[in-house]
Amino acid sequence: MGATRCRGLYWLVEAKGGDVRLNRLTYGWQQLEGGSKILSSYAHRRILVGASVQPRGDLFLTIDHDLHPGSPALPPPSSPAKVTAPTAPEDHLGDSDDALMGTARSQMLAFLALQSAPASQVRTIPLPRDRSTRHRGPDGLTTPLEREPATLELRGYARADSTDLDEPARRARVREIGLDDFLTCRIPGTELHLGMSRRLFATCAQLHREDQLTAERTPGLRAEDRHLMDEPISETAEADRRRTQRRIFREMQEEERVRIERSVRSAYEQGEDRQWHQLLPSGQEPRLDLDMDAGLLEAATPETYLALREEDLPHRQY
Q1: What confidence tens digit (pLDDT) does each residue in 146-161 have?
Q2: 91-105 pLDDT, tens per residue?
Q3: 226 to each of 93, 207, 216, 229, how far by Cα in Å?
Q4: 123-128 vs 287-288, strand pairing mode
Q5: 3-state SS, residue 235
Q6: Which residues share a beta bridge with 124?
Q7: Which spans in the chain are helix H?
Q8: I need a labelling partner for 222 at 20 to 30 A (CA). Which of 21, 161, 291, 316 fits?
Q9: Full-model pTM
């Protein structure tokens, strides 16, 4: 997704490559329709690109697009009704291996972005350790933080009590007050700041290591293990080979499922007691940010964090 300032529109772009046929393009358009449900309040253009190299080396390219007009805001309900927020996998990380594995998988891209970010660009932000104090709306487990009383109060205490302390002492004081420090950074090329708790970060790190070990035992799955062939093979044969490798990878994961779940569970349970410098490849402790930006809109789930600047919202730009 991106914004085009000259036209005043958001664009949703999906690209398909390889053996591009009608079924893949149809699936790509279904993905764009899913994105439109998220961006439905704003007019936006949807673009589907398909690219395929033909046997003789010719490049075949298709571009489909349309304009989604956006939807008007829903009218307020005539009488407010008490709605219970639905539960989500993050609500059950402590007692369900399926929930823990599913959440770690869903957050893997955010984890890789945080893990690979330069040390100068990551920071930690304080959030209440007691997740039950966060107010949740009726639509899910995400809590807007800019007007969340418990978060604002604890952050105020932390700033007042740590003015004259050095960084290690500030971090210790923050934890004594009842705050966790979530790791976060701005994702390059976007307006979004993503983050997560240390125990979810430790969980994703362990699952990523397990996936790497399984990939190493799957012949030819990793790019660095592939050998150049004397004769080029067709796209169909290459697609079949990749499907076979992915099937072997999944079968090996299933064979090791009990052991992997055990190791991931252990990482989750021990993660809260580990320091960030022990979890990050840089070996450095990120800066604790207690001077929160007034123009930053923040939200959190029990184990994840999301923020963006107010001026980056579509209704502020256009």
Answers
A1: 778 888 888 888 888 8
A2: 889 999 999 999 999
A3: 37, 24, 12, 9
A4: parallel
A5: helix
A6: 183, 288
A7: 22-38, 97-106, 108-116, 149-161, 167-177, 198-216, 235-255, 257-271, 276-279, 314-317
A8: 21
A9: 0.70
